């Protein structure tokens, strides 16, 4: 592959959160017995879900690292099976014709263990180990809620069947986890895109249900209002699918731009207003003229219409979860703030203007979360913790960050009323 191509795909690699630090496995100390703990339900980040396909009997579709390492020739086939199509008649996304998928092991954190070593640091596997170190037990007090990251929640009144089904399953999981643990309400712990899912899930449940079943939401590495990084990623996947630096990225190649979740984390006008985010000589693009940007990077009118009707209203309607909440984020790492394509050639490597954040999540979106949740009178409790020099993935893989996260979860357990 030519260096230019590798550079073009750099932002894609970032989004897929393949940044990780090698390090010793976490040893977090040993704690109390499981009895007395509030059950924890984990929602991992983007791409941290294993999905299987029914084609030739159920087999591992995402992520089948072993098969792809052994035979890169399988790539086009995997890419094609992961692709979503938009069904106009049904008004919703679905699998390509003839493909049937399901997430692996809903209810458990078992499916967070990948055969790809890079995913150990990106997909909560070390957090699971750390929680087990303080007495949590898989299947007894520790549960997982994997979701198919290709789909996203949509605006009220718009069909989003995959997300509705996920919500139904998560509702049952939360209720059962609570019942099995002396009716203690659960602590939802999310990383990255899992936070977006959890917020939308909570906002769609009746308030009395939330207050009865959810002790606390602990959200790691997620703000509100999306990121200019996503604009850069959408620009970098313009044109025909090109090879990316890793097999994983090539397979995704951002879903050949077909995923329903693609527009979910675009910058929101509610947070960014008309601040220029993508800068060219002749014209700037902000959250407020996003449809023009999407058209400029090659999306069809139909696709832009889906951004307007499915994704945009959600970001405009952001609401506090009204359950006690702790938000933990990394800062001190250069994070995309603005992207400059001076000649408006979006297939060129842009100049990036960095701000503060965790390398993926910009600090501005964390400050927006503090305003939009912390200042709401009905929000029972809100705490925001910023950990210096902590990247998006080291939050759930570095010993020192994990210690902070586990300490907060134990403190939430102690809180009599929050
Ligand atoms: C991975 O894919 C290969 C080839 O498609 C298949 O034979 C294998 O069973 C898959 N692995 C899992 C764990 O399903
Ligand atoms: C990408 O999408 C286009 C248009 O939908 C389709 O023609 C092409 O085959 C897809 N490529 C892959 C690798 O899925
Ligand atoms: C675009 O934004 C930059 C930075 O805010 C500003 O200096 C420039 O004048 C703007 N350009 C146009 C064409 O509006
Ligand atoms: C845009 O940039 C790409 C990559 O540098 C280059 O191959 C292409 O010719 C450029 N297009 C125009 C219209 O300048
Ligand atoms: C930030 O973290 C890196 C990697 O863990 C470490 O090498 C570096 O010394 C840290 N810098 C500061 C200022 O703490």
Automatic annotation (TrEMBL):
A Gene Ontology BP annotation from the UniProt entry: lipid metabolic process
Stored Gene3D superfamilies: alpha/beta hydrolase
Signal sequence annotation: 1-29
GO MF entry, a single one: O-acyltransferase activity
Keywords, alphabetical: Signal
PANTHER family on file: LECITHIN-CHOLESTEROL ACYLTRANSFERASE-RELATED (PTHR11440)
Protein name (database record): AB hydrolase-1 domain-containing protein
Species the sequence originates in: Setaria italica
């Amino acid at each position: 592959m030519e260096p230019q191509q590798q550079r073009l795909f750099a932002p894609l690699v970032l989004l897929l959160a393949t940044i990780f630090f090698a390090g010793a496995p976490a040893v977090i100390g040993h704690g109390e017995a499981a009895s007395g703990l509030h059950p924890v339900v984990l929602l991992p980040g983007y791409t941290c879900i294993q999905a299987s396909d029914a084609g030739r009997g159920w087999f591992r579709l995402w992520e089948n690292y072993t098969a792809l390492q052994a035979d890169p020739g399988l790539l086009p086939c995997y890419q094609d099976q992961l692709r979503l199509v938009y069904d106009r008649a049904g008004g919703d996304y679905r699998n390509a014709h003839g493909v049937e998928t399901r997430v692996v092991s809903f209810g458990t954190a078992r499916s967070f263990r990948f055969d790809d070593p890079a995913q150990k640091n990106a997909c909560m596997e070390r957090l699971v180990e750390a929680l087990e170190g303080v007495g949590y037990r898989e299947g007894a007090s520790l549960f997982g809620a994997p979701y198919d990251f290709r789909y996203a929640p949509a605006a009220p009144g718009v069909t989003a069947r995959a997300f509705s089904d996920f919500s139904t399953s998560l509702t049952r999981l939360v209720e059962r986890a609570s019942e099995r643990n002396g009716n203690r309400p659960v602590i939802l712990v999310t990383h990255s895109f899992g936070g977006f899912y959890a917020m939308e899930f909570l906002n769609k449940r009746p308030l009395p249900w939330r207050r009865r079943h959810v002790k606390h939401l602990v959200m790691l590495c997620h703000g509100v209002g999306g990121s200019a990084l996503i604009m850069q990623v959408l620009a970098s996947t313009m044109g025909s699918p090109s090879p990316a630096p890793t097999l994983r990225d090539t397979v995704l190649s951002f879903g050949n731009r077909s995923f329903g979740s693609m527009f979910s984390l675009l910058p929101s006008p509610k947070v960014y207003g008309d601040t220029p985010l993508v800068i060219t000589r002749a014209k700037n693009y902000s959250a407020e003229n996003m449809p023009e940007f999407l058209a400029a990077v090659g999306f069809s009118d139909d696709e832009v219409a889906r951004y307007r009707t499915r994704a945009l209203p959600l970001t405009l309607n952001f609401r506090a979860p009204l359950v006690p909440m702790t938000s933990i984020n990394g800062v001190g790492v250069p994070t995309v703030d603005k992207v400059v394509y001076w000649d408006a050639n979006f297939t060129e490597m842009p100049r990036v203007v960095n701000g503060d954040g965790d390398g993926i999540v910009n600090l501005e979106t964390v400050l927006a979360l503090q305003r939009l949740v912390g200042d709401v009178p009905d929000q029972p409790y809100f705490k925001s913790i910023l950990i210096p020099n902590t990247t998006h993935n080291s939050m759930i893989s570095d010993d020192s960050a994990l210690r902070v996260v586990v300490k907060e979860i134990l403190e939430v357990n102690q809180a009599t009323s929050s």
